Amino acid sequence: MKRLIINADDLGADEARNAGIFEAIREGMVTSVSLLANGPAFKDAIRGISSLGEKKVSIGIHLNLSEGMPLVSGLRRLTGRDGYFLGKARAHELLSGRPDSDLEREIQQEFDAQVRVFKEAGLPISHLDGHQHVHVFPAAVPATVSLARMHRIPWMRAPEEPDPDPGEGSAGIHLLREGRIFSGLGKAARPLLSEAGIRTTDNFRGLYLKDRVCLSSLVECMKALPQGLTELMVHPGRILPTSPSNPFSQFSTVYREKELEALLDKGFRKALAERRVELVPFPELDR
């Protein structure tokens, strides 16, 4: 049996991104979302979730330590002088080693604050992952596992993915290098998550599709989809009508609409049907 969770990351980044994600949800082509607690369009996302009615979709928390403004004030290790997170490259460098007590405390404080925002909004948390995969970096894993256990979050992303088949098109040297780093971190995290009783999907896809999602790449992905439960990470959205105004919107490029168009294409639906792939949210578990 092949079951596929299509998870849209970065809900809450901006209203245009939200609009595209909810469009895909209503069309049945996104079954799960990961919401940024510190996203500038968090409240807009909550309104969108409320409008879904009985539409079945998983709501997960997209833990963030790399972009935007943290929810906790006075952080010193995780932020720059301007009070914002350090950005992708510097945050990854900081989180790549073992944490000292100060860094560990700041990570835990910020994670707790982000979960608290979800709780205050009345949102159940079906799964956990990280913006730019910060949740599986060595300095953050202990806090991530602790958070999931404390709040009984049953599922966590392990972004472990095999290298793409050469027949799927070139992912580019930078993307291959980055994907292998994230995949290695995901592989290293799996046994820790299993030991803590946290579930992961059997398979994960999406690292090597960054800015490359189109109908042909989705069809090729479905052709090679393994048996079991797979999470496919996507980043659909609409383009902002004005210039980007926050760190998250820097990613709101034409690629977001290309991803959305590919997900909604009848050809993708046909590929799913031909290979008997069932679209599902994260399965509910006894907590």
- The outline comes out as globular
CATH architecture: Alpha-Beta Barrel
**What structural class is derived from the secondary structure elements?**
alpha/beta
Oligomer: single chain
Strand content: 5-15%
Order of helices and strands: EHEHEHHEHEHEHEHHE
Residue runs with pLDDT of under 50 for 5 or more positions? none
The helix tally amounts to 9
What's the CATH C level?
Alpha Beta
| Average pLDDT for all residues | 94
Q: How many strands in all?
A: 8
Tell me about the largest β-sheet: 8 strands, parallel
Terminal-residue CA separation? 25 Å
Mind explaining what this structure looks like?
The chain has a single domain, classed as Alpha-Beta Barrel (TIM Barrel), CATH 3.20.20.370. 39% of the residues lie in helices and 14% in strands. The protein contains nine helices and eight strands. It has helices at 15-26, 42-50, 88-95, 101-120, 141-150, 173-195, 215-223, 254-264, 266-274; strands spanning 2-11, 32-35, 58-63, 127-130, 155-156, 203-205, 228-234, 277-279. Strands 1, 2, 3, 4, 5, 6, 7 and 8 form an eight-stranded parallel sheet that branches. Helix 1 (15-26) runs parallel beside helix 8 and helix 4 packs parallel to helix 5. It starts with a strand and ends in an 8-residue tail after the last strand. The mean pLDDT is 94.
